[in-house]
């Protein structure tokens, strides 16, 4: 069916609204952290990657950093291992580390690159193990619990990421790093995205998550907070407003801001084309974390 006159005008208005934002983001790095349950829905995956392809088309340098918690959980359950978390961080013994690496690097990373390829995007799949991309050291115990093979990031090879972007590739980075001995470590993908963004001087950092942002009452969508100040974060963690897996996510937002990224957003990745809505419309969506 042909569009009506009103629909054509509406599309033109959307384009006019988007143009100043497209201009502002041209030749800028935008880091997108992608993960959570949205990765299990083919239709949502498609819209997210369509957004990444659209960014590339209009001259933005998108960098995709991904985890894969639900698929890792499913694989661990299949082999009879229980998933354990402390403050949103996965407790990772040697066997779990092997499974994490297999799922993230061997399956999810390559599937993302393949799908982007069908959209005309040259995507390169990487983990922190490739070319010394992400260096780590073992993370200290949290709350008296040894997390095992969980790493704290000590370095990011920014030149490698920037070179790939300038050569017209989209880097797709799995959240695994190596220490000085070459051992593999699991990295929280939210933390990895923040460190990658800081290292390359990203103009924008977007965390795609399963909910619409930070809520005053985590169970009530109507309490969504459009904006949260860095100074409020620790108090919100202490009183339980921010809890579980949202803790490392929000703390990585704070770290990114302190490292110089001015625009950090938590956005619901299950909303179709949420990246484009956030970047190229006047209102945007989700929660903005700011100084």
Short descriptors:
Acetylglutamate kinase, EC 2.7.2.8, arginine biosynthesis, two-stranded antiparallel ribbon, eight-stranded mixed beta sheet, ArgB, ATP-binding, 14 strands, globular, alpha/beta
Which bin fits the share of residues in helices?
40-55%
- CA-to-CA gap between the ends? 48 Å
Unreliable residue stretches: none
Overall pLDDT confidence: 90
Instruction: Give the overall shape.
Output: globular
Q: Can you describe what's shown?
A:
The protein is built from nine helices and 14 strands. It has helices at residues 5-25, 42-57, 69-78, 94-118, 158-166, 189-200, 233-238, 246-258, 274-280; strands spanning 29-34, 61-66, 85-86, 89-90, 123-127, 134-138, 151-156, 170-174, 176-178, 184-186, 204-209, 227-229, 264-268, 287-290. The strands form four sheets. The chain has an eight-stranded mixed β-sheet, with helices on both faces. A two-stranded antiparallel sheet has the order 3-4. It has a two-stranded antiparallel ribbon with strand order 6-7. Helix 2 links the parallel strand 1 and strand 2 (61-66). Helix 3 (69-78) packs across helix 4 (94-118) and helix 6 packs parallel to helix 8 (246-258). The mean pLDDT is 90. The record marks 33, 249 as: Transition state stabilizer. Catalyzes the ATP-dependent phosphorylation of N-acetyl-L-glutamate.
């Amino acid at each position: 069916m042909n569009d009506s006159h009103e629909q054509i005008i509406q599309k033109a208005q959307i384009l006019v609204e988007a143009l100043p934002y497209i201009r502002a983001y041209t030749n800028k790095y935008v880091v997108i952290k992608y993960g959570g349950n949205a990765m299990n829905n083919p239709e949502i995956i498609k819209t997210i990657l369509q957004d990444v392809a659209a960014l590339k088309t209009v001259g933005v340098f998108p960098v995709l950093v991904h985890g894969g918690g639900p698929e890792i959980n499913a694989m661990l359950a299949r082999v009879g291992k229980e998933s354990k978390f402390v403050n949103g961080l996965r407790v990772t013994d040697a066997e779990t580390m092997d499974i994490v690496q297999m799922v993230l690097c061997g399956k999810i990373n390559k599937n993302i690159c393949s799908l982007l390829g069908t959209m005309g995007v040259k995507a390169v799949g990487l983990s922190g193990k490739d070319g010394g991309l992400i260096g780590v050291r073992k993370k200290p115990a949290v709350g008296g619990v040894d997390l095992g093979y969980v790493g704290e990031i000590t370095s990011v090879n920014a030149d490698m990421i920037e070179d790939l972007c300038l050569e017209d590739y989209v880097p797709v980075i799995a959240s695994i790093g190596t220490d000085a001995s070459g051992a593999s470590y699991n990295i929280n993908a939210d933390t990895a995205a923040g460190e990658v963004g800081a290292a390359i001087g990203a103009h924008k950092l977007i965390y795609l998550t399963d909910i619409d942002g930070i809520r005053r009452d985590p169970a009530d969508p109507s309490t969504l907070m459009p904006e949260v100040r860095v100074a409020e974060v620790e108090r919100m963690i202490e009183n339980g407003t921010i809890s579980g897996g949202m803790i490392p996510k929000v703390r990585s937002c704070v770290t990114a801001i302190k490292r110089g990224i001015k625009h950090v957003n938590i956005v619901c990745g299950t909303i179709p084309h949420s990246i484009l809505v956030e970047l190229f419309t006047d209102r945007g969506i989700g929660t903005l974390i700011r100084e």
